[in-house]
Structure prediction request, 1204 residues.
Amino acid sequence: MLKPRVCILRTDGINCDEETFYAFNKAGAECRMVHVNQIRSGEEKLASYQILALPGGFSYGDDVHSGKILAVELASFLKEQLEEFVAAGKLVLGICNGFQVLVRTGLLPERHLGEINATLMANENSHFECRWVNLLVERSHCVFTRSLEGSIISVQVAHGEGKFYTAPATLQGIENRGQVVFRYAGPDGRPTVLYPHNPNGSLNAIAGVCDTTGRIMGMMPHPERFVEKTQHPNWRRMLSDTIPHGLAIFKNAVDYSKQM
Amino acid sequence: MIQEVRVIAKPGLPDSKGDESLYEINRALGIQSVEKVRTARVFRFEGISEKEAAYLAGKLLAEDVFQTYRVNGPVIEDAAVVLEVAYKPGVMNPEAASLLKSASDLGITGLIAADSSWEYGFYGRDISGADIERILNSLLVNATIEYVVREKPQTLVIKGVPGPTGVIPIRRMSDEELLTLSRDKLFLNLEEMKVVQKYFAGLQRDPTDCEIEIIAQTWSEHCVHKTFRAKISMDGQEKPPLLKRLKDATARSKHPLVLSAFVDNSGVMEFYEGTAICGKVETHNSPSAIEPYGGAMTGSGGVFRDIVGTGLGAKVLASTNMFCFAPPGTPGEDIPPGCLHPHYLLRRVVTGVKDYGNRMGIPTNNGSVHFHPDFRAKPTVIVGAYGILPAGSSRKRQPEAGDLVLTLGGRTGRDGIHGATFSSGEMTDRTIDVNASAVQIGHPIEEKRMFDAILAARDKGLLRAITDCGAGGFASAVGEMGSEIGVNIALDRAPLKYPGLAPWEILLSESQERMVLAVAPAHLEQLLEICRGYNVEATVLGEFTGDKRFCATYEGLTVMDLEMEFLHDGLPQRFMTAAWQRPEHPEPTLRETRNWSRLFARVMGHLNVCSKEPIIRLYDHGVQGTSALPPFAGANGDGPNDAAILTPLLGKPYGMVISHGLNPVLNMIDPYHGSLWAAAEAVSNAVSSGANPREMVLIDNFIWPFPDEDALGALDMSVDACVDFVRATGMPFISGKDSLSSTYRGQDGTVIKIPPVLCVSVFGRIPDVSRTVSADFKGAGNQIVLVGCRNTSEMAGSVYYDLQGAIGQNLPKLDPDNLMKVFEAVYAAIDSGKLLACHDISEGGLGAALAEMCFGGATGASITIPADENPEQFLFNETAGCFLAELPADADLADIFSGVPCSVIGKTTAGGLLTAEQYGKTLFTLNLDELKEAWQRPMKEVFH
Prediction:
């Protein structure tokens, strides 16, 4: 079986590209760093890839809104390529800034390029926060979390604008259609809106969502920062056979793409 | 015509900036008349129609999900006071470029210029004019870079015509005139000014302003380290220059892993598999003192460029920061005129470091904050950076005649003019007014894309040499790169942020995010291609010549023509006298403690002991995925660790350790022993995490009061301590920096000197991170072991003494030869896999170390204080180079630590209690939750 090809999209200010590359690579994919300029110039085409990954960082300095300038660029210049990519049943993953970009293009949660239905607002405590949190993996049709449903995973958040917010009707729709993939969980394993377990005050404790097909997924925490055991702050307190929690997300993406 | 768009959160939705401002107004300023603050973004566009502005508002500026907007009209209409705060014209707003790009992406073509700012609406019936004045001056407006917009600007375009190049008639100046020329601008002394005068007399011409400025800059204390190169007479005895002593000690150590020491932008040591790691630590005290946010940002940006400017370019792996401030609760009236309040300084410096490092994607994972009232004179802001590069690219190369000089990255503006010379001057009550141009706003995204381009070019072998454009700008970067060979640049080729810069300003500008490259002409096109791919501007400024002169032209006219030899070797060596006076600090009389829970809580809540977690959480310490020992971990994620350990090569077991140590208070008592303490503490932090003392190197940073006889005497002793430490341990210093201007002089004759700071930073390599430990206790029923040599009666400078209002005389006196034996024993023990946890003893003593290990493990502890020990001294003595370790219950102590002092002092327990007994009687039983609350409270109050 050929390794699925992953386009790791870079531009000014993207800075989690190398660890995302490493995570997909470790999960069995063949990755390539692609600068958005290369797609705009035609040197690279999204169609040559099975997975599009939008890594974390501060694209264009997060000016105006986090991820906004890149979202405008994608929705203006890569609209057709993106629509084609999504329509072909391929996978899109946005992590942190990548999630903010996906929401601001409209691809999440409604898979409608150019129409923004949700947002990621400033954290409730109004500052950047870097800490490890627990996520409850919800039952959904998200392909990135197959076989993880119901489990609690430990991941790091590092963001200043991660509060998932949308109008009540949209929120209800997302919930009803099972588009919530991850929720911040308290020590008891239940979803929480309370700081610090929920680091940003997200509505319904939402940490990640997918579209209705489950093939486009965005999340604020960084699963790519836990694909090696020693990346966890407390690996010295863990059992020696612990499998890094983030790795399964990338493996699921690779497995799904192999079967396509 | 300028179009204005205002964007505001919809009613009922959170306004985090408004809430944050309100909190500060109520809490930090104590102004209660303001009941609510609403904020709005203001965007201005020149060259487009109102309709186009509305289109941008809908597509780019406002999101309908949570915001509304208005074009050319107010959005806050019901507030008592509405004010807009913007960057001053000429201060680069990093957002402007993004606005231009996105507008173009959206098909808006006529846009000439854009700007953004913030508008504040203050609500409350009793807000006075004086309240608003204070809010603006103390909180919202830093007058060096920002202003209150009272009138809508007529244009956003900055116009200007450069003035002619001036000639300074130095040959006929009197001594008095020479000194006037020097004051506030050149910072050279009379002897140095006369050397310049004589040089031009010999040339039979007067210097241009370019020439006089570049001499002042090249000869500034900041760039040339005159004091460190001076011959010194200490107490009548002549001694070699300080820098020579340090370099000689390093050379004598013959450390096998060192690849380059003191010759490059950072020091380099061998890592694994053909790679090398490098480290550099810098200070940014002067800019941070007057504009802490911009100062800290440019400090981080500069030290990162030192890493990428090492060898043929290194990737930045980590950022560190060490700060010294006056206590944040210092009453406002105690702050000298011309200085900023430490509460504001601390918060703004942290925000600057955060915004630069986080945006660059560089983890900030090691640091500390120290407090002493005398830092009100000037804060100490130390920033470090570490990197990795191919070992084969780690040697500095020289440009060849015919190679091109390229500038890469940001454009040149009027920012930071006189930064290098200004940093060399003392603080005065005029500092803020006179040197405002020495500060600017950093642009981390510009730097990040430039680094990406440089590393891509390095990997293709396109670079001959590279250096950072930092203090002194092109003058320094180009001048140093061409110092052996000669160089000629055309200043009018430099891309400018706005027109109107005089040639000397282009030459001296310290605009950030620029690097200078030497590139063979054959490689130029390929290099430019890479730069275009990363949206990086690259421009050929000139070429390296071979004539050993530094020449510059502007529009065809020569504006500078100097011999490199005069520029770099013409400065006369100083001869300085030093004599240190031991200050009187009487020993206090110790009283027996009656209330242990109060005493212990006060120690834990002391500013120099308390948890700095609220600061660490603001920094991204996990980006790059390399962390193998984070700043905080443990059962609840709030137990501190001693060092950072990274795995720079993902998937490989190799570790890089980073740590540091400093103790300004001990240096006030005795700079020799205080400095040994700093070095011992730095190394202890690395060793207690599992690093091998034979495979680590050191970086020095001396932040000192102005070097008068006394301060220079202290510096001499500090350097001697460093040299003795290198001799005994074999660990060399491979990079360093000094900043000798931390004295404040007020108009009324007030003189305040900071406590002298020696910060020792450590980095090293670890073959396998799985053989390292964290500081949190791993379980109940394990042995707690004390390792190391200490005389617990040496209490001077301790937190315990400080709580008694005393400093004391009898400070910890370390023996570096003994230290090395302990380091080796601790390392061997961790490497053997037998230790469960280890933590070194520093401020707050054994007591604080023990409590922190309990916090991390969510365990308790029960200890026995030896019969011959005074309990307060046993618990709160701060001798560095001592460790607490956790061993399994059945482990044999003698087996694990042979040949060094060690003893079992107690065991870990399951409960949340810390108990101590002596002579078979319980001394105290303390609630660890209460201690933790006391330990966490101080910084939570500053960083809520």
